[in-house]
Amino acid sequence: MNALANRGWYWLACLLIPVLVTGCGSSSGPRVIPAWGKITYKGEPLEFGTVTFSPVDPNAAVATSAQIVDGRYQTEKGQGISPGTYKVVINVQRIPADLNETSKQKSKPGAVASKELLIPEKYASYKTTDLELDVKASANSVAQDFDLDD
């Protein structure tokens, strides 16, 4: 029985040592701050799309995206934006309604249908967007609205 008891302690130690060494609840990744807001074009909410926050300094943070639904965006739970300066890229595209079956059938296999950009092109590119967001290290959340124009 003594050998069985020693074996039980051995397995208990094998399970507890990794937990004690790594600790509990600490995150080794960068601090992320939840972000949300409204996005409008000429005062009207964008129905759908994607907003991407791309760091100006790619070594300082990683890009984060959120879906635009009914004019609003919100980063997913557990995701967010790290402190830093970001270029804001907004992409709202749809397949044109006049793209008929005949033109679909003539396209090559694997070809992607042409999409129509619903906002000015300057907002859809990191190189041309004039939208920026500065996230302070002291922030607990980021509430930022964007009103796009021509």
Give the low-pLDDT segments.
Answer: 18-23
The share of residues in extended strands comes to 25-35%
- Assign the CATH topology: Immunoglobulin-like
**Class computed from helices, strands and strand pairing:** alpha+beta
Using the 3D structure, state the CATH architecture: Sandwich
Tell me, what's the shape? Answer: globular
Sheet with the most strands, sense and barrel status: 9 strands, mixed
Descriptive account of the structure:
It is built from two helices and eleven strands. It is 18% helix and 31% strand. The chain has helices at residues 2-22, 101-106, and strands at residues 35-41, 44-45, 48-55, 64-69, 72-74, 84-91, 93-94, 116-117, 132-135, 142-143, 146-148. Strand 3 and strand 4 form a beta hairpin. It has 150 residues and is of the alpha+beta class. It starts with a helix and ends with a strand. Strands 1, 2, 3, 4, 5, 6, 9, 10 and 11 form a nine-stranded mixed beta sheet that branches. A two-stranded antiparallel ribbon has the order 7-8. The chain has a single domain (35-104, 112-148), classed as Immunoglobulin-like (Sandwich), CATH 2.60.40.
Summarize the structure.
By secondary structure, this protein is an alpha+beta fold. 18% of the residues lie in helices and 31% in strands.
Supply database-style keywords.
single chain; alpha+beta; two-stranded antiparallel ribbon; Immunoglobulin-like; globular; 9-stranded mixed sheet; 2 helices; 150 residues
